[in-house]
Design a protein that fits this description.
This protein is mainly alpha-helical and 87 residues long. It has helices at 2-60, 62-72. It is rod-shaped. The N and C termini lie far apart (110 Å).
Length: 87
C-alpha cells in the first residue's frame, strides 16, 4: 500500500512536471512570435523615420524654399539691396 501511494505521488509529480514543460515551451513560442512582430514594426518605423528625414532635408533645401516662395507666395528678390557693414 505504501508503495502504491509513493508510485501515485511520483506519477503525479512527473505528469505535473511534463505539463509545466509543455506550458513553458508554449509561452516561449508565443513570446518569441510577439518579439518578431515588434522587431518588424521597429524596422518599418526606422524606414519611415529615414524617409521623413530625407523629405525634411529636401523641403528645407534653399532652392526648394526659394522656388516655393516665388510660386506660392509671389515673393521676389529686392532689386535695391544695400549692405551695411558694422565695425
Amino acid at each position: 500500500m505504501n508503495a502504491r501511494v509513493g508510485f501515485a505521488l511520483l506519477l503525479t509529480m512527473v505528469l505535473g512536471s511534463a505539463l509545466t514543460v509543455i506550458y513553458v515551451k508554449h509561452q516561449s513560442r508565443v513570446l518569441f512570435a510577439d518579439l518578431r512582430n515588434v522587431q518588424k514594426q521597429q524596422d518599418q518605423q526606422v524606414i519611415e523615420w529615414g524617409r521623413l528625414q530625407l523629405q525634411n532635408t529636401t523641403l528645407a533645401a534653399h532652392s526648394n524654399v526659394e522656388s516655393r516662395a516665388r510660386k506660392k507666395l509671389k515673393m521676389r528678390l529686392s532689386e535695391n539691396v544695400e549692405l551695411v557693414r558694422l565695425q
